[in-house]
Structures are given as structure tokens and as C-alpha cells.
Design the sequence.
């Protein structure tokens, strides 16, 4: 079974920059069953797959929550921890800036039988069916989709999108009843490479990069829904490189990349898929603050380290939805005054964390008690022999450069973004990092993506400019002809004089 990685998380308040003008409206999703009880007062019997095993009837019983189950329901708090070290990344007269890594982990999903069920999900599966996925990888793709289908329930809905040199939606959002699963299996089974999907007319012969278009289409399928399940997700089944797939890293929708080139045990893969479909918290937000004994400090920036780096905010950040026991890594940048200039000592500082989220099992708003975390004493690379300090400093340089460059790109400031990335790369090389280091490779991939986006932008601008004189010439010719005709008819008009114009 393939390996799964997360490259896009619903962790930013920034809305995805998606141009949907060329995409159709996908409002043909199948209606949800709003309640298991019908308007007439009868219990609705959901469809079941006749091929699935049915459990033997063991008699009637009353489901009384056990003490362990009650504890699972009441003790569902988000776990927040800080790394044991922090690194100074900048210093000035009377102040210093340092970084620390924060780990945020969602609570486990209650699995007590008969007491709580997984929240229904609207899932879009994006399948890479390019020529490179022939033979064994194509079979692995189909087997992976079969495992995904086996983990979906009647209230879940699935849409399938395939891409190669172009992208195509193969099915709308349909409930995964017995008929819905059979229909999805038929679509998966008839995918062939090279060739086409029968009846849908997709060109799979090319090797063009349409993964970004497929992701935009997947997000639009979820945006255009008439009815919505509480949880949404996108699965991308591919063997492409990470920087090629994660084009919507700032999307508010979880995008999980399933790599077809790596194998893991099937049972472990099935558990991972089921974990990704188990929503643990909704609309998670964190309020961070600093409390110090001798002088105040402030949180200047918070960056995401899960997937492609993204700027999340300062003290107040939003992480969105998280699945059961999911862990996110954040890089927190803190600016603080140096308290004792005579001895050079630093006072211990405390970070306060206030969380706020919606429990998907009860739809209740939860505000757990504030947590107080001791911030490690910040150290410089020169004063510490710990290699983690230098790694944390280098991580801050690359993360900040990538995240801030994207903010410049959103304002079409490509030259500024390029200078920021190249300066960060030069600084890391000065620190002794080689081209094989992960931070350098991440910056190189970002620079390559920036050059590609900048090239398309320049080409579009030049194309627009080249069309402007042509269109003006044709319009002038038409006006001159009208003027000449009217002159011969001895009619005076506002167009008089165009017959002698030179363009």
C-alpha cells in the first residue's frame, strides 16, 4: 500500500486564490439524508451492501456509556507542547527575536461501540492517470481506491476527478450507499493507461501538468455543494513530486497526498484512511500570549510547518478542522527585550494557550482551560553545542522566506518574492548548508515554482500587449471604411476625416 503525506491543511485564514471562471458550477451533488427518521415518523432503513457480512443478532440491550467512554467524551482536549529548545534568530539593541516549535495534537476519536459514530464526510478523490502510472502503479491506484471505498459509509459522499494532460470530473458527489459504491467501483475499474476512460472522453496521452487544475476543480466541487456534510477532504493519488502536488497549500480544505511509489501494509493503510476520515475537532482556533516575570514579550508571527510553509497570523491563529490524533507543527516567532544587560541573563517566560473548537460529535462549542507552557531559554548557535539550535535557526530562515514570498506573490510582487528566496538561500549556504539539505531543496523548489508562475504571468502580459495594436488596427480600418462610405453619400458625421487616417 502507498505512503500518505499531508501537504495542505485547513490552517490559514487566507482564502485560496482560485480562479473558477472557466470551471462549470458543480451543484449536482446528491441530497443528504438529514435525519434517520422520515417525515412520516418511520425509521429510514439505509441501503446495505448484500456482499458485506452482517453481524449476528445478539438480542436487545441498552447502551449505557461506561466510565471509560464517559471519560473519552469529557476529556477531549487539544494537546499543545513546545520543543525543548529555542533558537535566537535576530538581535538588536535591547531586544532579541527567537523561534520555538509548537506541536498541536487533536484528541482521539471516541470509538466506544454504539455510543458515537464518525462524522459524515464529503470526499473528493483526485486520481493521477498519466502515462507514468502504467502497469503496477495503475493497479496500486485501483487497489487504493477500493480501500478508500470500503471505509466510506452511507452518509458519506464521494466525487472522483482524474487528471493527466487534462482533468475531468468522473462523478458528482454521491452518497456511498450500496449503489453508490458499485458505481464508484465501476468507474475505477475501467480506468486504463494509456487510453481513455470509457464514456468520459479524457485525453490521457499527454504528460502535461494539470494537477493544479484538478485540485482547483476538487475545491470547487466542495464549494458548489447545495447540501454539505460537516467534514470535507481531498485525497490525491499520485507519484508526482511534493512541490508539484501541493499547489493549494493555503487551502482551507484538508488535502492528503497518497504516494503510489511507496508501499505500506494494507491493514495499516486502511487504519490511516479511516483516521483521516474521522473528524476530531472543527474550526480549531488558538490564542497565544506571553507572560514574563521581568519584561514583556510579544508573538510576532506564527508559521505552519505541516506541508508547505504558510503564515498563519500573530497571536490569534486558526487551524480549522483536524482528524483524530492529527498533529500539526507550528513555528512561533517571539520578540522579547533583554532584561538584564549587566549579566546577560534572561528571565523565564511563559506562553499562554487558549483553544476554542467545536466538538463534531455533539456540535458543542468547547473552551478548555488556558494552558501555561514554559518557553525554553533561547540560545544562539555560537553559545550552544546542540545541533538542534542550528537546525531550528535554518528552519526559521527557510520557513519565513517561503511563507512571506507567497504573500508577495499574492500581490503580484514577483521580483520581491524572488529576492527574498534567493537571499534566504544565500544565507543558508553561508551557514554551511549544502544543496542536498532539506531547507535548501525546499527553497530551490519554491524558486522553480516562482519562475514558472512568473513566466506564465509575463507571457500573458506580452500576449495581451501584442493583441492591443492589432485590435486597434482592425477597429480603425472598420471606422475608415464607414467614413468613406458616408462621404460618398454626402453625409457628414463624427467619423468624417477617418478616410485619410494613417495607422
Sequence:
Amino acid at each position: 500500500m502507498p505512503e500518505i503525506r499531508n501537504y495542505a491543511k485547513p490552517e490559514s485564514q487566507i482564502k485560496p486564490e482560485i480562479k473558477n471562471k472557466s470551471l462549470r458550477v458543480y451543484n449536482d451533488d446528491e441530497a443528504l439524508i438529514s435525519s434517520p427518521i422520515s417525515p412520516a415518523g418511520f425509521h429510514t432503513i439505509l441501503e446495505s451492501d448484500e456482499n458485506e457480512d452482517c453481524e449476528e443478532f445478539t438480542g436487545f440491550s441498552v447502551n449505557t456509556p461506561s466510565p471509560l467512554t464517559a471519560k473519552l467524551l469529557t476529556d477531549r482536549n487539544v494537546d499543545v507542547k513546545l520543543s525543548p529548545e529555542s533558537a535566537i534568530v535576530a538581535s538588536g539593541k535591547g531586544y532579541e527575536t527567537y523561534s520555538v516549535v509548537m506541536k498541536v495534537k487533536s484528541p482521539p476519536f471516541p470509538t466506544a461501540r454504539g455510543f458515537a459514530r464518525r462524522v459524515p464526510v464529503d470526499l473528493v478523490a483526485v486520481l493521477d492517470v498519466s502515462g507514468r502510472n502504467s502497469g503496477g502503479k495503475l493497479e496500486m491506484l485501483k487497489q487504493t481506491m477500493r480501500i478508500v471505498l470500503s471505509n466510506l459509509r452511507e452518509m458519506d459522499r464521494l466525487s472522483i476527478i482524474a487528471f493527466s494532460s487534462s482533468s475531468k470530473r468522473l462523478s458528482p458527489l454521491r452518497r456511498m450507499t450500496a449503489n453508490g459504491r458499485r458505481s464508484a467501483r465501476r468507474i475505477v475499474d475501467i480506468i486504463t493507461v494509456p487510453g481513455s476512460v470509457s464514456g468520459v472522453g479524457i485525453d490521457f496521452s499527454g504528460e502535461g501538468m494539470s494537477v493544479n487544475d484538478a485540485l482547483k476543480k476538487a475545491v470547487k466541487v466542495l464549494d458548489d455543494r447545495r447540501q454539505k456534510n460537516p467534514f470535507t477532504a481531498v485525497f490525491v493519488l499520485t507519484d508526482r513530486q511534493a512541490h508539484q502536488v501541493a499547489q493549494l497549500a493555503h487551502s482551507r480544505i484538508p488535502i492528503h497526498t497518497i504516494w503510489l511509489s511507496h508501499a505500506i501494509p494494507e491493514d495499516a493503510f486502511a487504519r490511516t484512511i479511516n483516521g483521516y476520515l474521522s473528524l476530531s475537532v472543527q474550526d480549531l482556533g488558538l490564542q497565544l500570549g506571553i507572560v514574563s516575570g521581568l519584561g514583556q514579550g510579544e508573538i510576532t508571527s506564527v508559521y505552519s510547518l505541516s506541508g508547505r510553509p504558510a503564515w498563519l497570523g500573530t497571536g490569534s491563529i486558526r487551524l480549522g478542522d483536524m482528524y483524530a490524533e492529527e498533529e500539526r507543527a507550528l513555528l512561533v516567532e517571539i520578540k522579547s527585550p533583554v532584561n538584564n544587560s549587566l549579566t546577560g541573563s534572561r528571565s523565564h517566560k511563559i506562553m499562554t494557550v487558549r483553544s476554542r473548537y467545536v466538538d463534531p460529535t455533539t456540535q458543542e462549542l468547547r473552551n478548555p482551560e488556558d494552558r501555561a507552557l514554559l518557553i525554553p531559554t533561547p540560545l544562539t548557535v555560537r553559545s550552544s553545542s546542540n545541533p538542534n539550535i542550528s537546525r531550528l535557526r535554518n528552519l526559521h530562515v527557510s520557513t519565513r522566506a517561503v511563507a512571506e514570498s507567497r504573500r508577495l506573490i499574492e500581490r503580484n510582487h514577483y521580483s520581491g518574492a524572488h529576492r527574498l528566496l534567493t537571499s534566504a538561500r544565500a544565507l543558508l549556504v553561508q551557514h554551511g548548508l549544502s544543496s542536498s539539505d532539506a531547507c535548501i531543496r525546499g527553497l530551490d523548489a519554491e524558486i522553480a515554482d516562482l519562475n514558472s508562475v512568473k513566466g506564465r504571468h509575463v507571457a500573458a502580459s506580452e500576449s495581451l500587449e501584442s493583441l492591443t495594436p492589432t485590435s486597434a488596427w482592425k477597429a480603425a480600418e472598420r471606422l475608415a471604411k464607414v467614413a468613406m462610405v458616408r462621404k460618398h453619400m454626402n453625409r457628414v458625421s463624427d467619423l468624417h476625416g477617418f478616410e485619410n487616417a494613417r495607422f
Remarks:
- The mean pLDDT is 76.
- The two ends are 66 Å apart (CA to CA).
- The longest strand covers residues 79-92.
